[in-house]
UniProtKB/TrEMBL annotation:
Keywords: Hydrolase, Membrane, Metal-binding, Transmembrane, Transmembrane helix
Stored Pfam families: Metallophos (PF00149)
Transmembrane feature ranges: 35-52, 59-81
Protein's name according to its UniProt entry: Metallophosphoesterase
InterPro entries (alphabetical): Calcineurin-like_PHP, Metallo-depent_PP-like, Metallophosphoesterase_sf
Annotated signal sequence range: none
Lineage: Bacteria, Bacillati, Actinomycetota, Actinomycetes, Streptosporangiales
Sequence ranges assigned to domain Calcineurin-like phosphoesterase in this UniProt record: 176-344
């Protein structure tokens, strides 16, 4: 309840601020300002209903207008905030200049103290001009940024190619290639074509192993099963593997039904377990753990079960949705961890906030002696917008 109150308070505060800068500062008192106030209240309600209703089928039609407004609201807020200083400077200049024909303030009591032109109020017309100019700049900036972000989010993912050197890797395994994809987020805004495009692009990479590292869906099999069916066409030499992300635990029926559905589609789920990838006479251990969110549903990650008792002369690659798993992975001698979850920040400046929770935002890094590759994900969550973090499918080669 405390979290809910805080979130609603922040949303209400942001909408009030936007009304203040985009309505109150750009209009004179009257019915127009009042109607704009009602619009602000309506947009606040739209945001709340959109987040609450994204799991309610008959409210799914609100997803597009609701999440687009969330993105526009976000960038309007930050752009207007950045304009506060220049706006204040411009306002101070207007107040310091005596408008033509304006009366000069006379000190009370008829004092002989000289009049001070700087005390004259700024011309209301100039204040309106300043407010409208600020609103125009913010509006154009926000709409342009969101428009660009929509084209990136709904366009083809970028193919990122990465080579990772694993000390001690059996030379016969050198050149083994993983197609890594995460955060597909099948849902009401994506459609079946989203999965078809991802499958087509992965198959074009001719990878040895396909790794789907969590957050594949935002709903139940009943609602989204048809959207996932293109996954049955995934092609690779040694199979396709999946581990749960946090969003699999947000569905009404939990991750179990999706594990079964994926099995029917030819994708094997690694639930705190490992398999052997045999390549050119050598063996690589491929392990997977449940997402940390599973702890709240009695389905926690179990590194001992996934990695315990293995032949330590073999190299091991771990699939784990969140990069924070690396702290535990280091204790078990994992050579490479493949993760997602962060979306690369999805919308700048969220990329600056992700490090507060995760050790890696995107790309390859070494944490606690473990190499971690974090993909930005092939989909989006919430607003269908990506700014500064294009969607990604990775072709990763170990050497």
């Amino acid at each position: 309840m405390v979290f809910l109150v805080v979130v609603l308070s922040v949303l209400a505060g942001v909408h009030y601020y936007l009304w203040h800068r985009l309505a109150r500062a750009t209009t004179r008192p009257g019915p127009v300002r009042g109607r704009l106030g009602l619009v602000a209240v309506g947009l606040f309600a739209l945001v709340v209903v959109t987040f609450v209703g994204q799991r309610v089928p008959w409210l799914s039609w609100l997803a597009w207008p609701g999440f687009l407004w969330v993105a526009i609201m976000f960038y309007l807020f930050w752009i207007l905030l950045a304009l506060e200083v220049p706006r204040a400077v411009a306002g101070a200049v207007l107040r310091a200049r005596k408008p033509a024909g304006a009366p000069v303030k006379v000190p009370a009591g008829g004092s002989s103290e000289p009049a001070v032109p700087g005390d004259a109020p700024a011309d209301p017309g100039r204040r309106l001009f300043l407010g409208r100019a600020t609103a125009l700049v913010a509006g154009v900036g926000a709409l342009g940024t969101v428009g660009y972000g929509v084209t990136r989010a709904l366009g083809d993912p970028v193919i990122e190619r990465a080579a990772v050197t694993l000390p001690g890797l059996d030379s016969r395994l050198s050149g083994l290639r993983f197609a890594v994809v995460s955060d597909i987020h099948l849902g009401p805004l994506t459609g079946r074509a989203h999965a078809e495009r991802i499958v087509r692009m992965i198959n074009g990479l001719e990878a040895d192993v396909v790794a789907i590292v969590g957050d594949m869906v935002d709903g139940t099999v009943e609602a989204l099963g048809p959207l996932a069916r293109p996954l049955r066409d995934l092609e690779s030499r040694y199979g396709s593997y999946f581990v749960t992300g946090n969003h699999e635990y947000y569905t009404a029926n939990g991750p179990g039904e999706w594990v079964e559905e994926l099995s029917d589609l030819g994708v094997r789920s690694l639930r705190n377990e490992r398999v052997e990838i045999r390549h050119q006479g050598a063996v690589l251990d491929l392990a997977g753990v449940n997402d940390v969110t599973g702890a709240t549903a009695g389905d926690a990650p179990d590194f001992g079960k996934a990695l315990g008792g293995r032949d330590e002369s073999r190299s091991v690659v771990l699939l784990a949705h969140q990069p924070i798993h690396v702290a535990e992975a280091a204790r078990y001698g994992v050579d490479l961890q493949l993760s997602g979850h962060t979306h690369g920040g999805q919308m700048v400046p969220f990329n600056l906030i992700v490090p507060v929770q995760q050790p890696v935002v995107s790309g390859l890094a070494t944490v606690d002696g473990v190499q971690v590759y974090v993909t930005r994900g092939a989909g989006f969550w919430g607003p269908p917008v990506r700014v500064g973090a294009p969607p990604e499918i990775t072709l990763l080669e170990i050497r």
